[in-house]
Every structure is written in C-alpha cells, then in structure tokens.
Amino acid sequence: MVNSSQQPLHEYMTQCQLDTIARAMSLKSQFNMSRDCFNSMMTAWGSSLPEGHKMAKSWYEAKKILRALKMPYEQIHACPNGCVLFTKEYADDKYCAKCKASRNVERDLSDGVKKQSKVPANVLQYLPILPRVQRVF
Question: What is the pTM of this model?
Fold first, then answer.
C-alpha cells in the first residue's frame, strides 16, 4: 500500500496519490467544506485527469486510503464561528469562551428548551507533519 501511494496519479504526472489526498483533506479543513462539497471537488479533479488515474473519488475513499496507510490525523472540536479550538484549557467547555456558541449541535425539544447533542458542531481534522517526515526517513 505504501508503494502504491508513492506512485504518480497517472503516467504524465510526478505528484503521488498520498500528497494529493493530503492536500485535498487540508483544503477541506481549511475552508470548512462539507462532505458533498469535497466529493464534488474530487469528482471535478478526477474528470480532468486522464483515464486510469489513481485519484480518490470521494471523502470516504480518501479517508480509507489514509487509514490504510496508517496516516494519523487528529480530530479537534472547534467553535462553529471559528473562534476557539476545544483543546488544552478549553477541552471541557460546552460553550465557546469568546462568542458563547455551543460546542455541540443543539436540538429544540418539544417544550422549547434547547438541549446539546453529543455531535460536535464543527470538527477540524489535523494532519500532523512529523509522522509524514518520519515516514520519509
């Protein structure tokens, strides 16, 4: 699997599959793309490549390739407005310290009370650079 990830996307390109997927996942995180947006982007990129390319076709497939290569990534809960990452001193907070937005998705109950679910409102997927550098050497 590692050898196949180091092969170019197609015969006229030197960029490998792993780099392309890592860049695409980085764009997804940086611009807070939805899965549907990411899937559309991957489809658009894939349709512009020659036949026989090795580009992932969807978010699920890209995530599956990264998991198979044992590329670690961290999921960090974030404020929906982008104010705070819920790590370190904010790890146990239920609301953003700056804008008071809810950390998790809130649902309205039948009696008009809002209740937080266990689903985070925004998740940042961070691909640490050190494991990638260690893998090279």
Answer: 0.55
